[in-house]
Amino acid sequence: MSKLIISLGVASALALSACATSNPDVIQRGDAQRMSQVQDATVLSSRPVTVDGSQSGIGGAAGGVTGAIAGSSVGGRREGAVVGVIGAVAGAVIGNAIERSATREEALEIIVQLRNGERRAIVQAKGAETFNSGDPVVLVTTGGKTRVMRAPAVVPAAPASNG
User: Fold this and answer.
1) How far apart are CA 151 and CA 138, in angstroms?
2) Mind listing the pLDDT tens digit of every residue in the chain (163 residues)?
3) What are the backbone angles phi and psi of residue 118, rounded to the nearest 5°?
4) Using one digit for the tens of pLDDT, what is the confidence trace for 10-25?
5) Strand 37-51 vs strand 136-142: parallel, antiparallel, or unpaired?
6) Which pLDDT score is estimated for 23?
7) Which residues neighbour 110 within 8 Å (Cβ) at sequence distance 6 or greater?
8) Which of 58, 78, 87, 107 is most buried (CB neighbours < 10 A)?
9) 3-state SS of the chain?
10) Would you kindly state where each structural domain of the chain is located, as residue ranges?
11) Bridge partners for 113 per DSSP
12) For the packed helices 77-102 and 58-72, what is the interaxial angle rounded to 10 degrees?
């Protein structure tokens, strides 16, 4: 029974902590149907980085509750209370570590140069695209968040016919 409770607590912590992402291939619901600013740029460099995981407290709370319930079921009333407290503390520490690990993301730091010569650095989770020095890209900014995408091929407009 206590293994089931621990499993449920860990699963809850992981599910709740995995809700946020900085993946450039995932658009937040609030950003749908909003006009974004687009700037042309050229990649100067790109390097892998790790975005540290978050500790919102959800993992610690879920782990603490799970540890307290599992610990309190050990032995008699007195032993159960003591082990319950120890289980709550240990569960909170473990839950916090699980949340931090689950929300950690492999990312890229991309340094670009805009057409006006200014340089910008953007960190975003690894997506489907790779970026190399010299690649033409666009910076798409929506709601204060910027993501880097490969620049789409520009097709010249067909000349207007006088007909």
Assistant:
1) 5
2) 444 444 444 454 444 444 455 666 676 676 676 778 999 999 999 999 888 766 666 665 766 676 667 666 666 666 666 666 777 777 777 776 676 666 678 889 999 999 999 999 999 988 888 999 999 999 999 888 899 999 988 778 777 766 5
3) -70, 150
4) 454 444 444 455 666 6
5) antiparallel
6) 65
7) 43, 45, 46, 121, 122, 123, 124, 131, 137, 148
8) 87
9) CHHHHHHHHHHHHHHHHCCCCCCCCCCCHHHCCCCCEEEEEEEEEEEEEEECCCCCCHHHHHHHHHHHHHHHCCCCHHHHHHHHHHHHHHHHHHHHHHHHHHCCEEEEEEEEEECCCCEEEEEEECCCCCCCCCCEEEEEEECCEEEEEECCCCCCCCCCCCC
10) 1-22+55-102, 35-52+105-152
11) 42, 119
12) 150
> Residues in the chain, how many?
163
Token pair for residue 61?
């709370």
Token pair 């149907």 is found at: 33
- Residue showing tokens 């340089």: 119
